[in-house]
């Protein structure tokens, strides 16, 4: 890994404007999933250091809140500009620790920066209301205020964008943040902290702690100073965090698991649907919470679609993300590839046909072949469980009603997709799908301008858009009497 600015490779945590080691002196290694090479070590912090970070945020909170929205926006704007100025180094760092191809990493840095830019401006539009009074001698005002110290726990699959999508609105709203990044990808988080410091984010406003997930997460949940927790990760961990936050009644934003359907109707443009499926399914080696997890294809076009998809998948190139032309990198670790192997073998044992792939790649380590499974049925585990790998299971359906029923037959409700050339059908199906996000004739749905979040077991709250900043605000009613 070669960086133009080597100071972006930080190996200490960031608390109250200082770079700090763990009290114990312990650290853990960060490795490259493509090669197994050790990239760096970072502190293995725990509850004590987390408490200090929370206290630093508490102390910094009044002054940061007192800044005008415009003053905060100037700082955020500088942070945004620094991300873009250092895009190549940040992308190299991300590919090294996470594995995604460099082209995707560069795209993620631009995407991450977009949230900072967006919320820098949204902070200027936190409007209240003047409500018609209930008595002639009173005036009723509604104001919105920063909720206070916030905690953010972020995943490894998008190690930059998931941070800025939380920290951007928090800082714009006037809140201070303690961030715990994923153990597998802390280097991107620490690089963002370095750039935030250069941008002029004051000490204590943005803090980053790495290390013992249960200890750090437990303190973030239990500490009464923290008034809001935002988490992106599995539904199982989300449930645990909800329980741990209950005694202190924290506000929660949870972006959890998904089981996204990708529906192809017989009136769809099949070539467009194939390209959409490639983008949705195989991006980041299938390790996204919104990737197509179940491809539902109408019987009349099933065989043709599978054939076309097979041709497109054959064009994918697996390898180290830093190599030219690579379109799919490794999975994050051995546990990830073991899960994919389990699901594929279960499907195969129950009658699924392997169209292509279906096994670990000859490159070894955590590489897995881009895979298509045909003749998949609801009896297979892959129909219920999130794959988080480059495997496209293709189901057949008869009618529109069947497709909607199959799509909604899951505890999850994050993202969904469908392809049709019928306008009336597009309106019916988008309304019937029980998902927070619906992509119609597109496989890419994420943008800073639109709300991101799910229904059912896929979580609570929304990120991005004008709605994203609301999760970092409290609403206050001010009733003024004695006017007359």
UniProtKB/TrEMBL annotation:
SUPFAM superfamilies from the UniProt entry: ALDH-like
Pfam family, one: Aldedh
Family that this chain belongs to: Belongs to the aldehyde dehydrogenase family.
Residues annotated as the enzyme's active site: 255
Keyword Acetylation listed: no
Domain of life (superkingdom): Bacteria
Gene designation per UniProt: gabD_1
A single Gene Ontology CC term: cytosol
Keyword Magnesium: no
GO aspect biological process, one term: gamma-aminobutyric acid catabolic process
Its EC number(s): 1.2.1.79
Name of this protein: Succinate-semialdehyde dehydrogenase [NADP(+)] GabD
């Amino acid at each position: 890994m070669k960086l133009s600015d080597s100071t972006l490779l930080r190996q200490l945590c960031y608390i109250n404007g200082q770079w700090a080691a763990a009290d114990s002196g312990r650290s853990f290694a960060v490795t490259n999933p493509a090669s197994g090479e050790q990239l760096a070590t970072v502190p293995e912090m725990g509850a004590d250091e987390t408490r200090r970070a929370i206290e630093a945020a508490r102390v910094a909170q009044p002054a940061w809140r007192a800044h005008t929205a415009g003053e905060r926006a100037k700082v955020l704007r500088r942070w945004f500009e620094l991300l873009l100025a250092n895009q190549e180094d940040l992308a190299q760092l991300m590919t090294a620790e996470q594995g995604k191809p460099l082209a995707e990493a560069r795209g993620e840095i631009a995407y991450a920066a977009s949230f900072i830019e967006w919320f820098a401006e949204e902070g200027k539009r936190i409007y209240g209301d003047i409500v018609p009074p209930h008595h002639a001698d009173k005036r009723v005002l509604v104001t919105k205020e920063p909720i206070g110290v916030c905690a953010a726990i972020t995943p490894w699959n998008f190690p930059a964008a998931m941070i800025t999508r939380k920290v951007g609105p928090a800082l714009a709203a006037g809140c201070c943040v303690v961030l715990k990044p994923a153990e597998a990808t802390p280097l991107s988080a620490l690089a963002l902290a370095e750039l935030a410091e250069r941008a002029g984010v004051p000490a204590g406003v943005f803090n980053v702690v790495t290390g013992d997930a249960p200890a750090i997460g437990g303190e973030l949940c239990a500490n009464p100073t923290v008034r809001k927790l935002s988490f992106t990760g599995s539904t199982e961990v989300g449930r645990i965090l909800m329980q741990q936050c209950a005694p202190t009644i924290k506000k929660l934003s949870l972006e959890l698991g998904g089981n996204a359907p990708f529906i192809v109707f017989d009136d769809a443009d099949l070539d467009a649907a194939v390209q959409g499926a490639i983008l949705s399914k195989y991006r980041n080696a299938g390790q996204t919470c919104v990737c197509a997890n179940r491809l539902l294809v109408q019987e009349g076009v099933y065989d043709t679609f599978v054939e076309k998809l097979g041709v497109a998948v054959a064009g994918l190139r697996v390898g180290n993300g830093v190599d030219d032309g690579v379109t799919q990198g490794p999975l994050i670790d051995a546990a990830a590839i073991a899960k994919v192997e389990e699901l594929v073998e279960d499907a195969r044992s129950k009658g699924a046909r392997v169209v292509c792939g279906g096994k670990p790649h000859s490159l070894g380590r955590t590489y897995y072949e881009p895979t298509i499974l045909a003749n998949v049925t609801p009896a297979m585990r892959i129909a219920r469980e999130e794959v988080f790998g480059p495997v496209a299971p293709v189901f057949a359906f008869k009618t529109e009603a069947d497709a909607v029923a199959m799509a909604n037959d899951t505890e999850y409700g994050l993202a969904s997709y469908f392809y049709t050339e019928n306008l009336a059908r597009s309106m019916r199906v988008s309304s019937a799908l029980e998902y927070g996000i619906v992509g119609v004739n597109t496989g890419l749905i994420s943008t800073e301008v639109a709300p991101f979040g799910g229904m059912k077991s896929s979580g609570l709250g929304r990120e991005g858009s004008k709605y994203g900043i609301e999760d970092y605000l409290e609403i206050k009613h001010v009733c003024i009497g004695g006017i007359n």
